[in-house]
Amino acid sequence: MIRPSIFKAIKFAAAVATVLTLSTFSNSQSKHVALKQEPTTSQSYATRPIQDDVFYFFMPIAWRNGGGGNNSNFGDFKGMTASLPYLQWLGITAVWMTPIYPATAYHGYQYSDGGTVNPWFGPEADFRAFVHAAHQAGIKVFIDFVAYGISQSSTFYQSAYNNLASPDSNMFAWTNAAHTQSNSAYSYTTWNGSPVSFAYWNMTNPQAANQETQWAEYWANQDYGAYTDAGVDGLRCDHAVDTFDAFGPNGLGYTTANFWTPLKQQIKALHPNFFIFGEQNDWGLYGNQYEPPFDAMFTKPLLAAVRSSLAAGTDDAFQSTLATTVATSPLGTYLCVFGDHDEDRLMSDIGDTFAKGAAAASLEMAQPYPPIIYYGDEIGMHGATNGSYSGDASAIPEREPFKWNAVQGSPMSNYVFYNTQAYNGRVEKDNDGRSVQEQQPVATSLLNTYKKLISIRKGSTAMLTGTYEPIVANNDNCTAFVRRSGSSAVLVVTNFSGTAQTFTVDLSGYTVPGDKEGVKDLISGMTETALTTSNKPAYPVTLSAHGYVYLTMTLAALPSFFPRADGYLPAVQRPGITFYQNQQSSVVATAQLDEGRLLLYGTHLYMGFTGCVDLMGGNDLVILINSASGGQNVLNLTGATQAGIEELNGTKLPTGFFANAMAVINVYSGVAYVDWYSLPSNGPAVHTFRGSQTPGRLFDQITGGTNPNLVEVGVLDNLIAANTPYNSVNTGFEMAVSLADIPGTRLPSGRVSTISFLVGSDGTVSNQFLPALPHAERALGIAPNLATFGVTRTNTYSTDLAAVAVTSSTLVNNTTTGTVYIAGPAAAGGEKVPLSSSSGNITVPASVVIPAGTYSANFTVSGTGSGNNATITAKGGDTTRTVVVSN
Known about the structure:
The chain has 887 residues and is of the alpha+beta class.
């Protein structure tokens, strides 16, 4: 049976029959349907983790008029206060707004004074009253902050211009001695015909940086009049860059090291909970380059990917981009944006249907990052940039006034009135179904869908703080992933297409408690097909067009290989070996190897390398594998035609290292290519092209070549910032190779050794070498004798035992389940693995036998008393693995 979409088409009458006044709004002219105000926890807002928040972003001028500013057509601070019950009802816990400072542009970004407010919106007392009321309602407040410059109408610029005697003379980035010219200054005409101008600060002058810091500290100050909670909770920082490269090597002093880091330190010394997030100047960047100087950045690449997938009706780039986003955020977090004021409206970009809008909402509320809702997305507002409008009016279609009412009128803003083109071309129409008044009474409306999904997110620990674990769906029109906290899991599945889809998802990476687990959809409340041991590799799902589900279930993870393309292998206990590598680079690294890791599990050898292969420089990553007797100690690559590889012919390997296979990974023009060379002892190498994959994707099967045993790779090949410690690099490469492709890997005594290095397109072996060279500050040359460079050792890893883990490290009712995992041919079976415990109060069986056809076996950990700790040891061949438990 096809599950109906939770969102149904809405047909509205010309006007809602009954209109009630919302008594909790301060504006007596409010006209939309009464909203129930939910209880709040106002005292906890300041210390509430940002991960628990749901953000809402609006432009003050377009949001709501409350009669407090100097223009009844503009939104204002009193209107913002009057909107708080709506935001509470929706489930919002944090708001961010465009600049509130004096400016002539409607969006406020080229303002003249960062320490006062725009009289359009009312006096500062009204703004502080709004912040106080928001805090009382449990809602955090964040304001926009433009740190790199200011309007030419500012007193600073007016004083400094053509006046070398001015105390402000050196605050700006002048390009002539008279201080009358600057290549960073500009001007234009805004939507109502008023002039707008801007000039960049010279941040190498501490006076400019100190002024911005003082403004930030002013708004962070909680004390204002009788209020003790009227300071903002953080800043959204516009146009974040590491350096303004266009303005010379020091970028006007506007750098993370010289400005952003000191700013953050100074404010947090006074306000420890202050949260600073930034908009990366290059929207193609994931933003991890700016963490930790910033507490968070935006998921700009994910914004593009989700829109592309919903527009195309297939998982065009969503899952891979999300996986890469997760891979790049170990130092901080991201804030999830699917829409904002710099983009065409979400609905206009994905195809203007409410069902698609609901599908987008289902994905955004399930993200591992706090979501930010752009005002109007929750009611399906649409609009796209119109290049025929003059100046910044071209972006008004995606910034039109929020639709409180079915028909234009108070308390709605009407700032568009001041631009004839934008006003006559208004996208939003009266009685078009896209207003709070029309949607709030309809249970299945887009607005109420957002409200329900927000409520589900806030009520689920797995959704708020759980891990993100991508799941394979056997249908390219759909995407699936698990959000999991411990064994509490939510399976999120979304259909991008406009037709119903029946397919399966692979949950074989989990154990099912009791071999059968009940499943319920958190959205519809329906009980779904139970998850069992037998159906978990192909769990059935049926979704309507643009349908989605949040399926709650109990899942315990096996040692899961969800590699993040960062070179780290996140298996249970990370039992693989790590071999050390190269020191940090003092310059931006384009081709570098830092750390290497090996891990054997089941039928595969997993290899991970942190570093970068260099997207543009033509370097190859070469991995030599020694796994059996025979092989080549001197590489015989006669007949090889791959540039840079044929020149390796004659390379002398270390004594005792006989390579049985060689993997070559080349990243070129945005595609990673994988080649495989079998290295027999009695002849030249045999070359096979395995396939290719787009860098940035999650661990996935490569395609386009001969790949019978399903080699998989994950590549994230970004440049590495200067002075990054080798153990902090978060970009890299991972590869999973079937043991069927590696000769000699078997239990109980198989071994694997590797040598890895970067080689140039001319065949020059670089000094980027793993294991690390004892002395090599220069390239090793073409076809080198590695022994002459001190390569006398290799990293050997026994395949006897791969991992040991327990379901819970704290015994529950004095018991828990442990599991031993091995590597090797599954058909062998019968391997006996000895077990021991370091404490007589916590016991395990003397051994466990791995059943034939499997790679793991469970055992029971039993305890007596309490307050005891024990190290559980599993021994296989000459290797041991341990795990610590307590009761």
